[in-house]
Design a protein that fits this description.
Distance between the termini: 34 Å
CATH superfamily of the largest domain: Cytosolic phospholipase A2 catalytic domain
CATH topology of the largest domain: Cytosolic phospholipase A2 catalytic domain
Number of domains: 2
Number of strands: 9
Order of helices and strands: EHEHHHHHEEEEHEEHEHH
Number of helices: 10
Shape: globular
Largest sheet: 9 strands, mixed
Oligomer: single chain
CATH class of the largest domain: Alpha Beta
Length: about 280
């Protein structure tokens, strides 16, 4: 059953958020319950970043039946364990710690600096088993979707790069610090988009190493707009609303190292969604 309107193209934008990507599945499940059984994907354009990229690619590969796609996401996220994301056995963790310690102590002269803190080979294997990338083009050819984009950050170019697969009418784009490259999506594109810096190994694409797409993504709505969206549904996973007023009479405790480190990491992955919405309105 087709639900796409000829007059409007509604895009689904799924920003990053780590494990909070499971929250997006909850919203998608509610949407799936509102559409008729057997209905195809109701979003002609899908754009995802980091954990949101996983959800986007699964939806695109199973666009023929929206409820089935959401049920698959619910099954995967509902059974996620740390050992499905990275190698967490004692021997591997000990070996990784010793390698990092040796590399830091020797300055990398005797022990090569590890490429990442954790080995996310289990996550790559999990995605390889559950995502059928050739079906993305089938979904496009049969009109179930028009385009799907996955965004990653280039370490050499310092650009936010949206890799997209789309119908013939979609074109590549180039703007300040952000570009769109048209090519068939693969497991490497997905692994690049979720490669958290230092934690997971970056992925080599087109001679450049890429990391988590949430970095440097100041305009998360841009890929969907470039791909022809006239309306956008965003399922965010962060609360960027203004906090409470500062009380000048209240003296804050000295911030701990963990607090400062957490703030730095949060700043690195600062979601530009709300500022992007403000620019549009």
């Amino acid at each position: 059953m087709k639900v796409h309107s000829n007059n409007t193209r509604t895009a689904l934008v799924l920003p990053g958020g780590g494990a909070r990507g499971a929250f997006q599945v909850g919203v998608l499940k509610a949407i799936a319950e509102m559409v008729p059984s057997g209905c195809e994907n109701p979003f002609p354009v899908i754009s995802g970043t980091s954990a949101g990229a996983i959800n986007s690619v699964v939806l695109a590969s199973k666009a023929r039946r929206f409820r089935v796609a959401v049920a698959e996401l619910e099954r995967v996220w509902g059974n996620f364990h740390s050992d499905q994301v990275f190698r967490s056995d004692s021997l591997t963790m000990l070996n990784s710690s010793l390698r990092w310690f040796g590399a830091i102590v020797t300055g990398g002269t005797l022990v090569d600096m590890p490429k990442s803190l954790l080995d996310n080979a289990p996550l790559r294997a999990l995605l390889a088993r559950n995502v059928r990338f050739p079906r993305i083009q089938e979904s496009i050819d049969r009109g179930y979707i028009d385009a799907v984009a996955v965004t990653a950050a280039g370490y050499r170019s310092s650009k936010s790069v949206s890799f997209f697969q789309a119908a013939d009418k979609s074109r590549e784009w180039s703007r300040t610090r952000r570009i769109g490259i048209r090519e068939p999506l693969s497991l490497d594109h997905l692994m690049a988009s979720i490669a958290v810096p230092m934690i997971f190994r970056p992925v080599l694409l087109h001679g450049e190493y890429f990391g988590d797409g949430a970095m440097r993504q100041a305009t998360p709505l841009s890929p969907a707009i470039h791909l022809g969206a006239s309306r956008i549904l965003v399922i965010g996973v962060r609360d960027e609303t203004a906090g409470s007023e500062l009380d000048a009479s209240e003296v804050q405790d000295y911030p701990s190292f963990a607090h400062i480190a957490g703030y730095m990491l949060d700043t690195l992955f600062m979601d530009g969604l709300y500022s992007d919405l403000e620019r549009m309105t």
